[in-house]
């Protein structure tokens, strides 16, 4: 073995001989786990040869420390060691991996000075390097000047454009490639072409290129197959996605997860679960995809069940930040404080520095489960990590749980600390005003949005103010506020006013609100007619109440739906 050979050279004092050590260093350098052994053996050579330096540059360019290849190249230049095309190919690849375009240009200059500018493989490496460094113009200039191009040349140019998100150029070069003689696209080409079409929303082109793949017998390798599963899964074309999945002879974890995600996104959890159960090896993406799929489909109980299966069953895979954030959202929706606390314990045990998304999800979960004290404890423990969402979650939670004064205090502190409030923050603080009944304060917050923070109010902010006024009995002000809006009010705002009229017995404004709603989609729901009819009935105006009920039947309005509490 190479280790025995290396040991023999050390015992015979030949470990500093560059010729003797060439085979040892080459063998070490070609194996990523042995790159440190190659580095050590190379460091003992007093006068490395071109072959030894090339072995090291090649190995380091493929390792986790490609920048070290640049140091070896620099030493070659300083010592005046001869450089050949092999050196240039692999040092160029190293420049691409570390995205050091300055060093790459120095290498390019050497390529030209040494007369390697017409070497096919050197040019391919330069195209690739400039593409990795987002300099697609240099890539294209080299590509256009090449007298000879092979498949790697075309793929390198296509990959350069793809890396720089020049997707229309990807398709243009592909069309040129198809017209060129003696060059046939392969799976690498088609991965980038399909991805470009997907980004550009060219669904018809994708279908045509799938036919092209079949007509030209392009091998469906795992990377092309995974790309097609993802693209067709996102388009909801599950049978096509499944067809590509079945065609992959050697599936990897990405293949299984892509198929699972496609089914979960479409809401087909029977087939998603079947794929999940058939997977030869489930990773954290597999578990998280099932959990997030259930959350997005508004099936939080199922999401929690999968999480508990993951953490209490035989699975050796632990949750990551995405998993934890998703299941905390499920706990918030269902009020499962017990599971939420279990998740919090998992966060404490497994994540040294939880990111802001996990912390925000914890605060939101505790607030929605009515545990404001726990939410405040999490909030206080995130002093250096708070973002506007963090502040919004806690302000909203305090408001909903009946503590508007602390919500106001935190909003003020947020401003003092220079944290810019978001649109949602103002919804939360106006909601706090709803719970405190402070209409003037709510209006002050609303006006400060644009005046002090440059935030244009959205319909949800107008709705929050109208709700605040109606609950406090300021119906005339609510009407004037809606009528004075700079944008067309959503019918839901008139429905809010109608509800306020029912609560406070204002028949005049109730009629005005109903007229505004008449003919709108909102009026074709139960709420508007029932509220108006109830207003008249409460005032003893039975004829008007009956008329509202008759109009309700005339429109054949269906009930809005049922609601239940567990």
From TrEMBL:
PPR repeats lie at residues 49-83, 150-184, 252-286, 355-385, 387-421. Signal peptide: none annotated. InterPro entries: PPR_At4g14850-like_plant, PPR_rpt, TPR-like_helical_dom_sf. The keyword Repeat applies. GO terms for biological process: RNA modification. It holds the Pfam family PPR. This is Pentacotripeptide-repeat region of PRORP domain-containing protein. It comes from Genlisea aurea.
